[in-house]
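To whoever is on call:

I kicked off a structure prediction for a single chain this morning and the downstream step that reads the tokens threw a length-mismatch warning. I double-checked the sequence; it's 169 residues and nothing unusual in it as far as I can see. Pasting both halves so you can look.
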Amino acid sequence: MKNILASHPDLVSHFLNVGEGQIFTQHTLSQTVLGSCVAVTFHCPRLELGGILHALMPVWRDYEARMSEDIRYKFVDSGIEGLYELFIDQGARATEIECKVFGGSTSNQFSQLSVAPKNVKVAFETLTQLKLRIAASQVGGRLGRKLFFFSNTGDVFIKSINALNNACA
């Protein structure tokens, strides 16, 4: 990773926290850590536009009466819809947006109580409803992930981590 950063001195570094979503018009390396949470990346090659969200819960509408617009990225469905709207506002066409889905891990100890499988399911369903192309995914499993996303290329690198129980904290 150091070699990549050294060869791209114009690259801005950004850490994405739980419940955040953002688009990047300048070349940015965005990093986040996932356990049961789901990250979805968006990339438009023509515009060199990238975006990423880190969602904790699957469906915003289950909580809509109590939630406000400013926390939409805590939820998989509304976070994906929010990034999609931002990309369209920047001039991207739906047919040229490439998406990737990551996360949704469960530990042996809590697998039956985990929200992870529903997070993954809602991510794929929402992207499909919006007719967005899913170019890659790495979901499920028992290990957490550290994700590195390059906004200008859409490239994603994953490092597996053992500290799953605290990966989204």
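Update from on-call: the warning came from a stale cache, not from the record. Cleared it. Sanity check on the structure: DSSP finds three helices and nine strands in the chain.
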